[in-house]
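Many introductory courses stop at the sequence. We go one step further.
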Amino acid sequence: MFATCTALTSIPGDLFPEGTVLEDSCCRAMFSDCQNLVDVPENILHPTVLAKNCYFAMFNKCKKLTILPKLPAPQLAQNCYRQMFQECTSLVTIREDLFPENISMTSSNECCREMFARCTSLTHVPDLSSGELIYNCYYGMFLGCTSLVVPPELPSTKLAGQCYYSMFSGCTSLQTAPELPAD
């Protein structure tokens, strides 16, 4: 919809009014490669029910983006946040309240796959869900985040196949590995 609108610097807070219903791939790559987008209102994403691929690559390559919106949905969908902020190279931290508490990933394969991949300025990330994980859910989530020094806590004890696959691959500044309390 607005992909490669390189002069775009902000988006209105009422773009997605409360009650918005998402369909498969509805916002896919919506602002992708808007290289001057700086301002995204924190409460822009009201939908609490997500659809498959709904926010896939939505802000991909928004190279000046420094503040992320909240992601209020308590139940994730397949590929819903996949590559959502990939290559947002000015992003330094991820807000602590990005996700709601007790987020559910049931039936949401690859929900956060490569979500922050190649965010090369990223130094701080919040701890992740302690809930049950699903296949490939965090696959490559921080892949190539070359400034990340300390990993988030990974408190979940219910893991799934490849849930952490390549999660920190290419994080060349990482000084410690997270503990895995899973049984």
